[in-house]
Design brief:
Layout: H1 3-7, E1 22-27, H2 31-46, E2 50-51, E3 60-65, H3 70-89, E4 94-99, H4 105-114, E5 120-122, H5 130-140, E6 144-146, E7 167-171, E8 173-174, H6 185-189, E9 193-194, H7 197-209, E10 214-218, H8 235-243, E11 250-254, H9 263-271, E12 278-280, H10 288-294, H11 300-313, E13 318-325, H12 332-345, E14 349-354, H13 372-395, E15 401-409, E16 417-421, E17 426-429, E18 439-447, E19 452-456
Parallel strand pairs: 1-2, 1-3, 3-4, 4-5, 5-6, 7-10, 10-11, 12-13, 13-14, 17-19
Antiparallel strand pairs: 8-9, 15-16, 15-18, 16-17, 18-19
The structure holds S-adenosylmethionine, iron/sulfur cluster and FE3-S4 cluster.
């Protein structure tokens, strides 16, 4: 069967209950996985499947997994277990597990042994083979394990079923070459591979034509973009090209590595109207010994210099970060340096994590693992200090007028719309639904730790 026949193999297929075949994808982890799930959904749509929100109705269920921390993996194991009963009630159901977690060879094998009700196990490097895997499982009626050890070439022009709304994800590069010593991502996502700028720009143009207002350019370290291309290019040059796409309102990107954030990039962002003044710059720690053992490639002082440069050119920049406490060998002094760093930078917000051993990474083998009770104390202290900073920073916004892009209706309070400032602050305000997708001016009337309240001006 050729590729087109595979894609069309279910086109006219219907369920025993007379309905079209349906799928449900459950996604764990980061935006890269969210975007991959849109591609998986696109392939299923081309095969004739329709999405369903009702699990019991699904003919194909895919779990697109994450393994960045143990908690993420535990959630997936829990979900696999929950699906066992459904599979025994509905043996024709095809259950697939894919993504970062299965890319670890021992995990794929463990799923096969422990959860024989799973039909397909595949990894991050062969998501494009989903139609073939579904076809094979229907033919062979046995568990198919197909995890590629190494990354292949980037496959362009795969179909997508995007999340509808105002903003769209665009992956600009895959993989990571940084090998931070705590992190599993380079092992499960492969080495850095950049998409051609022309393909990225074309995708952004198509998205704009479909009505999306904002794009989020995705990569584990977007600052490395283009280093592997011939001729070499860089992220600032890519941004300049995306910036010229007519009809696009906003550009964001995720994630930048502080080591590679060039002056050229800061200038580019400062001079652009579309690139938002939000810098998510994961610092991880303020302790120089810890940063060195993490293989981050910068010191606390380098980081503070970078923040100074950004604020000198873009005074109202929003700056957020990721922090890990309890990395092996982290002393009280290192932790005090982290607290000092967050007081000095005054981040708008921070994602805080307790270090978690990931087998196969160098840090898992390091001596002086930090005891759980010390980790518990440090994470609570860190969160308390950062929350105070976030609240104080938000208080400074009272009375300010901001340009916000309205993204939708707030789930918790359906009477209000939610929008984001260019600096990525969430603003809630009362307004007509017709404002969704539009850029409006709001005045900040009240503030909390995580959001601002506003009114239209
Ligand atoms: N590539 C991005 C970067 O360089 O920051 C993000 C990588 S990861 C998906 C997101 C965050 O998870 C990291 O910034 C780090 O703070 C955290 N993280 C990664 N591995 C971890 C581990 N073993 N334990 C705790 N947190 C971890
Ligand atoms: Fe992990 Fe470091 Fe790569 Fe980010 S840059 S994905 S933290 S190895
Ligand atoms: Fe998780 Fe993979 Fe993202 S490990 S954080 S889903 S790249």
């Amino acid at each position: 069967m050729n590729e087109q026949e595979l894609k069309n193999s279910n086109r006219e297929s219907i369920n025993p209950d007379g309905k079209r075949l349906r799928y449900q994808i459950q996604t764990f982890g980061c935006q890269m996985n969210e975007r991959d799930s849109e591609t998986l959904a696109g392939m299923l749509r081309e095969m004739g499947y329709e999405p369903t929100g009702v699990l019991e109705e699904a003919d194909v269920i895919l779990l697109n997994t994450c393994c960045v921390r143990e908690t993420a993996e535990n959630k997936v194991w829990g979900r696999i277990g929950e699906l066992k009963a459904l599979k025994s009630r509905k043996p024709e159901l095809i259950l697939g597990v894919c993504g970062c977690m299965t890319q670890q060879s021992d995990v794929a094998e463990k799923i096969r042994r422990r959860a024989p009700h799973v039909d397909i196990i595949f990894g991050t490097h062969n998501t494009h083979r989903l139609p073939e895997l579904i076809h094979r499982v229907k033919e062979e009626r046995k568990t198919i394990v197909d995890v590629w050890e190494t990354e292949g070439d980037i496959v362009e022009n795969l179909p997508s079923k995007r999340v509808e709304g105002v903003k769209a994800y665009v992956t600009i590069m895959y993989g990571c070459n940084n090998f931070c010593t705590y992190c599993i991502v380079p092992y499960v996502r492969g080495k850095e591979r950049s998409r051609l700028a022309a393909d990225i720009v074309r995708e952004v143009q198509e998205l704009t034509a479909q009505g999306y207002k904002e794009v989020m350019l995705l990569g584990q370290n977007v600052n490395s973009y283009g280093k592997d291309l011939d001729p070499k290019t860089d992220f600032a040059d890519l941004l300049a090209k995306v910036d010229r796409v007519d009809g696009l309102t906003r550009i964001r990107y995720m994630t930048s590595h502080p080591r590679d954030f060039s002056d050229k990039l800061i200038d580019m962002i400062a001079s652009s109207e579309k690139i938002c003044e939000h810098f998510h710059l994961p610092v991880q720690s303020g302790g120089n010994d810890v940063l060195k053992k993490m293989n981050r490639g910068y010191t606390k002082e380098d980081y503070l210099t970078l923040v100074g440069k950004i604020r000198a050119k873009i005074p109202r920049a929003g700056i957020t970060t990721d922090l890990i406490i309890g990395f092996p060998g982290e002393t009280d002094e290192d932790f005090a340096e982290t607290l000092d760093l967050i007081e000095k930078v005054k981040f708008d917000a921070a994602f805080t994590f307790v270090y978690n051993k990931r087998s196969g990474t160098p840090a898992a083998e390091m001596p002086d693992q930090v005891p759980d009770e010390v980790k518990k104390y440090r994470i609570q202290k860190l969160i308390a200090v950062q929350n105070t900073i976030s609240r104080e920073k938000n208080l400074l916004e009272l009375g300010q007028i901001y340009e916000v892009l309205t993204e939708g209706v707030n789930k918790a309070d359906p009477n209000r719309l939610e929008a984001r400032t260019r600096t990525n602050k969430l603003v809630l305000f009362e307004g007509e639904k017709s404002l969704i997708g539009q850029t409006v001016q709001v005045r900040v009337t009240d503030t909390g730790t995580w959001h601002l309240d506003g009114e239209l001006v």
